[in-house]
Amino acid sequence: MSLLRILLIWPKARTDPDWGGDLGAIAEPLALEYLAAGLLEDGHDVRILDLRLHPETLAATVSEYKPHIVGVTAYSMHVRAGLLVLKTVKEIIPDCLTVVGGHHATILPEDFFEPVVDLVVSGEGVSPVRAIAKQCLGEQNYYRIPGVWCRHADGAFQYGGEQPPFLIDSLPRPNRTLTQADRHRYFIDWMQPVALVRTTVGCPYRCTFCSLWQVMDGRYHKRAIEQVVAEISEIKEEYVFLIDDEAFIDSKRMELLALALKAAGVHKRFFAYCRIDSLIRNKDVLQHWKNIGLERLFVGIDAYTDKDLKEYNKRQSLQQIEKGLDTARELDIEVLAQFVVNTDYSASDFKQLVRFVEHFKLDYPTFTILTPLPGTDLLAPDFSNITIKQPNGRPDWDYFDTQSLVMPSRLPPDQFRQIYRNLFKLFAGSYSQFLIHKPIVRHHTNRITAI
Residue 139, Cβ neighbours under 10 Å: how many? Predict the structure, then answer.
């Protein structure tokens, strides 16, 4: 007999397109699959509800399942949506234990210090959530759990202290059986269905617009090769997206991983993140990956001027960008090139960006707006540089989707937004092969992270 009924929810952000998804993709809720794996090992009954695919089913699911615990994961653009989810849960089952975790809860947990939230998990979630479930069956001393903020009767939240050092190989293998009914619907562009795999966690680089490295304090954690091979060998999907923040930093490890996958008879259609300098440095390694199915790299070019490359702390030059793109062509690996549009762009800067894309004949350019994400120095401590706020003075996190202008811009905001939207129209032909998901021509395939 199962110990507890636990419902894990991926919320639908308010700025998600009506057709569902995270700006051009609906990727499996990998973070929840990791949590589910640990909880199932402990004997609990677990369900995963993906509200991007099932936005109207929350109340019915909670009423039917009657969970003892409901957990929600949230990036910044999910903060308010996540709180609304837990408000609904409390209205249906007032004594249900509600938990929030994820990237935003790690950086700014105070945004969840609300009456509908009982516990907030900061940092890696598997161990704290397993401890929460154990306490739920016992003394319920949640305030003693490292990495957990616990709400007391007076409404104040108390922190259980820092978590022990992160050991990546202590994590269970993500449980994908709970999303089986939805797996055929997970896609990234034409890759459908697609599975996500993380072989490392963290990033040693310090790009100013990125907060991913903050979650792991700048450390780079590498999974054992045999664990990765075992996981990928079990995946049924043809497409596999390696969602490491930067997979090819350790070239020798990635070469050994490619050889181990080949020896195990694994051949998938791989997609992975890769920096330009990693692409140049690891041509031979990438050839090994090409041999086992690597078709596509997500490359953060991010800027086309020395000024912005320096401002973004990219630690790469325009000459390297050209050489990296040439290397990808030599390997016959497609490049999905991301650009971060600076809010200080003039109309001329936008035109120069278009010329850059056309000059290098980039098959699939994609764009985000420079956004002061929590955990970056771009976000002023007092939020004074944010133009869209909630009545309480905090940023309106709904718009922190990297597609909305939330800081002052050189151009009038309406003009900036219009020219930015036109980028997607200009390159609509580049996306024509992906028209199975027609809205792709209007929305950027956002960088997808899961833990």
Answer: 9
